[in-house]
Specification:
By secondary structure, the chain is of the alpha/beta class. The chain has 14 helices and 12 strands.
Length: 353
């Protein structure tokens, strides 16, 4: 029998890439997305999402809607990507992050708990609720600190990371209090196709192609562990299928790099792929800008648990993943223009990861 998976936030960056991977599986997908600025039906259309799969525009915080979807489609699993995710936006306006990431997750959990309790015994035991989170909940690392592992204490430093930490705690609590079979994944910085163009990598690519400044916060020495989104989605799928309820799994890219190195590497790739561009060398467009408040210095992920227990490891290196990503944005300028509103275009120079 074909199983149904409810994917919340499936029109966003990581969610859409996960939908893309699962379209090849013998499963029916129900995608729920609020379609805020970062979620776009253009993405799902490009992926070819069509019957028997279904898309519903809606909010995970709308409990009656979620309850009706669960009753109608009877999913065997829920994968929750739905979240507000941009740190700069959380500093400017934290309220949407509290509303979606905390209250939205709570309402989704409550609807799921009541649905799961009435399932027949076989489905009751096989059901899974997988919550997608971030390494930012762990705070900031010093240069020689060991990478974050699953037992690292939470120490969020932005409204965004604090709201995601809260949602993680709720998911954990629903496992320990109600036995709801939940799983949590915490990932490092993702990059790849379909990322909204305010994030660092697509922002740099698109600004460079247009001859616009490439803004880098502070001294450019902030370090992130970069994870190619398709590798991340493979890890999510393995956790969904093989993970042990109640467990948390870190998913990382084994690619710690400074922001300055990353931007310089993108410029080098663009120089190679667009040798006739009047912007060559693109690195001349780099500009250092005032650092943002509470900017974490370093993130790094220890993914040895998922590698040891589930056999997952990243397949893309930072070199191969970046080249694929730059080429994708060069080839999909129409998509970038379609998802970027006029307001976003006016704001673009001031936004980063």
């Amino acid at each position: 029998m074909t199983q149904t998976i409810l994917i919340t936030g499936g029109a966003g960056f990581i969610g859409a890439n996960f939908v893309k991977q699962l379209l090849a599986e013998n499963q029916r997908l129900v995608v729920l997305d609020k379609l805020t600025y970062a979620g776009n039906p253009e993405t799902l259309s490009l992926l070819g999402l069509q019957a028997p799969h279904q898309f519903i525009q809606g909010d995970i915080g709308d409990r009656p809607l979620v309850q009706s979807l669960l009753a109608k489609h009877q999913p065997t699993a829920i994968v929750n990507f739905a979240a507000e995710t941009h740190v700069d936006r959380s500093i400017d306006s934290p309220a949407p992050f509290i509303q979606t990431n905390i209250l939205g997750t709570f309402n989704l959990l409550e609807a799921t708990r009541h649905y799961w309790r009435q399932l027949p015994e076989a489905q009751h035991h096989s059901f899974r609720f997988l919550h997608i989170s971030t390494d930012e909940v762990f705070g900031s690392l010093e240069p020689h600190d060991p990478p974050f592992c699953e037992t690292t204490p939470y120490a969020p430093n932005s409204p965004y990371s604090a709201s995601k930490a809260s949602s993680d705690h709720l998911v954990r609590a629903y496992f320990h209090t109600y036995d709801l079979p939940t799983l949590i994944t915490n990932c490092s910085n993702n990059y790849g196709p379909f990322q909204f163009p305010e994030k660092l990598i697509p922002l740099v690519i698109l600004n460079a192609l247009e001859g616009q400044p490439l803004p880098i916060y502070g001294d450019g020495q902030n370090i992130r562990d970069w994870l190619y989104v398709e590798d991340h989605c493979r890890g999510i799928h393995q956790v969904l299928v093989q993970g042990i309820p109640g467990e948390t799994y870190n998913i990382g890219g084994n690619a710690e790099r400074t922001n300055l190195w990353l931007v310089q590497q993108i410029c080098t790739i663009l120089d190679e792929l667009c040798p006739g561009s009047p912007q060559v060398p693109h690195a001349n467009l780099i500009q250092f800008v005032h650092d943002r408040p509470g900017h974490d210095r370093r993130y790094a992920i220890d993914f040895s648990k998922i590698e040891r227990t589930l056999g997952w490891h990243p397949q893309e290196s930072i070199a191969s993943g970046l080249r694929k990503t730059v080429q994708w944005y060069i080839d999909h300028r129409d998509w970038c223009q379609a998802v970027a509103s006029d307001k976003y275009q006016r704001e673009r120079l001031g936004l980063q990861v």
